Amino acid sequence: MAPWAGDAMALSCALAWAISVLLLRRLSAQNPVALNLFKNSLAALLHSLTLFATGGQFASDRSLEDWLLLCASGVLGLALADTLFLAGLRRIDASVAAVTDCVYSPTVVVLSFLFLGEALGVGLLIGGPLVLLGLLVVVLPIGRKRRLEPALVDRKGVALALAGVLMTAVAVIICKPVLNRSSLIEATAVRLWAGSVALFGFEASFGRAKSALALFRPQAAWRQALPAALMGTYVAMLLWLGGIKYGTASRAALLNQMGAIFVLVLSALVLGERPPFLRWLGAGIAVVGVALIVSL
Predict the structure, then answer these.
(1) Is 76 helix (H, G, I), strand (E, B) or coil?
(2) Nearest Cα to 176, choosing from 70, 59, 65?
(3) How many domains does the chain have?
C-alpha cells in the first residue's frame, strides 16, 4: 500500500461524512428514530456482507464480558447517540452540526486518560480550549448583528447534537479494549446490530414499532436516506478504519476532522446555506484545536 494511502482514506472519510450530514439535513422532516434505525440497519447488513465476503466471521470465542461491552457500546453510541445527533440536526444548519463534531476528539483524549490510562499530551491543554472557543464563536450571539438574529442558532439543537457527539465518544471508550482484540469490521457490525435491535425493541415496547419502521417502505425519502446511510455509516466507517490501519491514528484523526470544513463548503454549494463569517471562523479555530490535540 502506498505511503499516502492512509491520508487519502482519512480525507475521503471526512468527505463521505460531510456528504452524509448534508443528506441527513435534507431529511429533517423525518422522525430521527426511524431515520437512525433505517441507516444503522442497512449499514449493519452491508458490514456483515463485507465481513463474509472478505473471509471473516463473527467471533465464536469472545468472552461474555466482551460481548456485553461491545453491545453496550452499540446501544449507547449508535442507538442513543446517533438519534440525539439527528434530532439536533433537525434544528440547526449542517455547518453548525459540523463544528459540534469537533468536540469528539478532545473528549476521547480526556476519557482515554481517565479510564484507559493513556498519556495526556500537552496538546489537549492548548487545543481543548480552542475547540470550545470555536464552538462558542458559532453558538453565542456575538456582536450587534447576532443580537438582532437570536434565532440564527438553535441552542437546543446544538445541545442535542453535542450530547450525541459526547455519547459517541463514551461509547468508543467503552469498547476500546474489545476492539483491540477483535476484527474491526466484525466489531463494527456487532455494534450496529446491537444498536438497531435495541432501538427497535425500545420503540416496540412503547407501541411505536410502526413509526420506527416507517422508512423501511420504499418512498421518495430513500433518494436521500439510502445514500446517507451508505456514505455515512458504511463508506465513512470503512475509510475511517483504513485511515487508521494504513496511516497513523493521530494524523488520521486530524484529517477526519476536516469534515467540518467540507460541510461548510458543501452546505453553501449544495444546500444554499450561507454560513456567516463567524461560523467559518469558529470551524477554523476548532480544527486548529484538534490539530494541536492530536499532534502535540
Answers:
(1) helix
(2) 70
(3) 1
Q: Which domain holds residue 198?
A: 5-295
Residue 265 host element (H or E): helix 259-269
Which amino acid is present at 180?
A: N
Q: The pTM is what?
A: 0.87
Radius of gyration, alpha carbons of the chain? 19
**228 to 25, 43, 69, 128: CA distances (angstroms):** 10, 10, 27, 30
C-alpha cell at 194: 446491537
Joined together, the cell numbers standing for residue 129 give: 480550549
pLDDT tens-digit map of 131-188: 888 888 887 765 545 443 444 678 899 999 999 999 998 998 898 888 878 888 999 9
pLDDT digits (tens, 9 = 90+) for 251-292: 676 777 788 888 888 887 777 777 778 888 888 898 888 888
